[in-house]
Structure formats: structure tokens, C-alpha cells
Design a protein that fits this description.
By secondary structure, the chain is of the alpha/beta class. It has two domains: about 130 residues, 3-Layer(aba) Sandwich (Oxidized Rhodanese, domain 1); about 200 residues, Rossmann fold. Helix content is about 55%, strand content about 15%. A hairpin with a 2-residue loop joins strand 9 and strand 10. Helix 7 packs across helix 10.
Amino acid sequence: MANILNIEQFLLNAESIPVVDVRSPAEFENGHIPGAFSIPIFTNEERAIVGTNYKKNGKENAVINGLEIVGPKLVDFVKEAKKIAPQKKILVHCWRGGMRSASMAWLFNTAGFEVEILEGGYKNYRTHSRDLFNKIDKLFVLGGYTGSGKTDILKEMEKLGAQFLDLEGIANHKGSAFGAIGQHPQPTTEQFENMLAKKLGEFDLKKPVWVEDESRQVGRCAIPDNLFAHMRDTHLIKIIIPKKIREKRLVKEYGCFPKEPLETSIKNIERRLGGLRAKQSIDALESGDMLKVAEITLEYYDKAYLHGNSKRNTKLIYELEINEDNPAKSAKKVLEYCKSLSLCE
């Protein structure tokens, strides 16, 4: 018999025991427990057929239909499980901890595996994951104009012991119209949330957690509502770095990429940049004047950032001037500044 585990114990065990998700490939692709393996009982099409049968003819008929579909696959399921879990210990879940996980657990158990099932299934996991965003006790946001090197500074702060929830890194997107250039494909919003929750699960949520200032969307990934609301109503440490330094950083970050995706990104903000400035920017790109491209595009991004900050409580914004592009030194300055304000205790 398989043991039924609550979500906390299941995730604890998952640190050393493989997790098998038996939902359909489409369900898995939309979102899954990070690190889980997919062994779907039904294909997407088969799941639709069994579901329709259930609605039209009832549970008993659907179960028989399901057995007819699954029967020939049983040996392959066991072979796949042996590859994933050679120690013959395995964790299993479906959507709600119902028939699919129970059936697969029975099969694995019969094949000699020690099996544990997630109580409430993936639905329970999602509730648990989203609730983690409400448990951050002290959230701090590092802000600053585009090109300030905020991500690199936060990574250096992380080396010094700060807890950094890397929204852009997990989303595979740098947050601007240029943000997808050079990045891996983005996860779905649901999987983005799952990966954020996994990282949060590694933190001490009673201690400060740092994030970078972002709009609600990081590319196609939406920041969870409760996390975003907290980000907009908490302390913002805004670093002020001269525009010329920021222009040089943008050239360093994006100047190595082909012109085509850069031109596409400029055209994506043409309406907000203005037709003339967009044309001047594209002309500068064609002539190889990347500093000019950075100068023009920053006109838009600086205005946009000011507008975003105007919606914040000014009493929660603290400005720190930094006059060089040195993330390691800037990280120390940010932490020292925060400590001087008695915020990061």
C-alpha cells in the first residue's frame, strides 16, 4: 500500500526521491512541480476521450474505457519508473490525488516499488506554492533606471548572504522590450510561479528577501498578484547611476547581438518612443553607433520608470547615488545603506 503524504512531507521527501507526475503531457507542460518526471497515464487525446465517456456514460463505463487504453502500457510504465528510480523509491501525484495517482501507485507497488502519494495532488501543491508569497516577512526591492546593473548588483548581494529572488532569471527575460534577446524560452506563468515558490522554499522567510523592481509582466510571465502587491507597497532602494554609465552598460549587454532582433525590439516601442526617435535609433543601429541607440531608447525607459515610481508611496523610496559600474562594490553599498536606515535588521 502507498503512503499518503501531506504537501510539506511530500516536498521534503522530494529532495531525495524522484517525483512522478502522471497527468497528461499538456497538464505537465502548463505547470509541474520543479524537477518532476512525466509518466502520463493518458495522452492528451486519451484523457479527452475518457473524460467525455465519463460525462456521457458514467464512472463505471469510463473506468473500463481507461483500463482498455492503459492495459498495454503497464510494462512501459514500470520500465520508465525503474530508469527514474533505480532505488525503487518513488513519489507519485496526479491532479487531485485521485484515481490516476492511486492506479499508478498500485502498479509501482506491485512491481516492488516503495510508493508515496501526494495528498490532494498537484492542486494542493499549487495552493501551497501560491500561499508562500504571502509568508515573506520582509521584502525589499532594488530599483533604478534601466542600465543600472540591478541584477548584477543583486547577484553580488547574494554572494554576501542576501536572499535574492531572481524574477528575471527564473522568467528567462530581462523585463524590457529587449528582454528576450539572448534568453532561453520562457516558462508558462504557472511554471514561473512554481519555480519562484521552489526558490522561496529554500529561504528563511523571516529574514529579508530581495527582488528587482519590475512591472507586473516579465515578458510573458506574470508576477503572482500577492507578490506584486507586496513589491509595490514595500521599501524600495533606488540606485541613481549617471546616464552615460548606463548607456555604456547597455552597449556591453546588447551590442554583441545581431542587429535584427535589436531592430525588432526598437520597432516594438516605436509608438511610445516616437516615430522620429525610433527612426534615428534604427539609423544609429545600422551605422553601428550603439551608444546612440542606448541614448535614445533610455529616453523612453527613464520616463517609463519615473511614471511607475509615481504610483508608489514616496515615504518608502530611498535613493542611493552610485557613480560607477562596479556591481561588487555597489552591492556592499546597498547593504550598508539599508543597514544605516535600520531596515535590513
